[in-house]
Structures are given as C-alpha cells and as structure tokens.
Amino acid sequence: MGKLYEILGLVQYEAEKISSSPRDWLHYLDTASQLYRYSFSDTLLIHAQRPGATACAELEIWNHKMKRWVNRGAKGIALIDDRYPKKDYGMYLMFPIHIKCRVEKHRIYGS
Q1: The dihedral sign for the CA sequence 86, 47, 22, 29
Q2: Cβ count within 10 A of residue 64
Q3: Average pLDDT over the chain, rounded to an integer
C-alpha cells in the first residue's frame, strides 16, 4: 500500500503544480492532447513521470495487439487501477513508446 499512497500523493502534487502557472498548465495540455483517451488523473500521472510520452499502453497490448515491442529494461509508468468499482485501488504499469510518423517521398512526374 505504500507505493499506492506515493502515487496518490504524486497526483495531488502534480495537480497543484500544473495549476500554479500558465506555462505548467500549457505543458500539461500538450501531454493530455496526445493521450486524450485517458482520465484526468491518468494524464496527470503520465505527465508527472514522462511528460514527452506520445502513446501509452500495457505491455501485453504493445506486444500482442500492436505488434510493437517494448525495449528490454524499459521503465513503466505507474497508474492507478480504478477501472472497476471497488474499495481498494491497485496499480498497474503502462509503457510509453514514442511513435514517429514516417513520411515517404513520392516522385511526381511532370507532363
């Protein structure tokens, strides 16, 4: 339970931090715009632990569904498991992968 309370404290600290200045709020909004499917508390935790993350998912989702592989030794982002209504909250790890858009050059032939 010690780690869970540490993560809950991180949510509180990050909420106070981003609301203290307009620049911090805009940095948070940059992160949240990339991760719009996550809840407010999850985006706060992602921003606190890895502000540059562009995509986050559980290890099994990256490996099996997305066919992308997390590097060995990669550190996960701890999030609070509040997906199911219950009294106890747990933690789970998400792994960020930076997705880069690949632009291919095409030849255009003149007439």
Answers
A1: negative
A2: 9
A3: 77
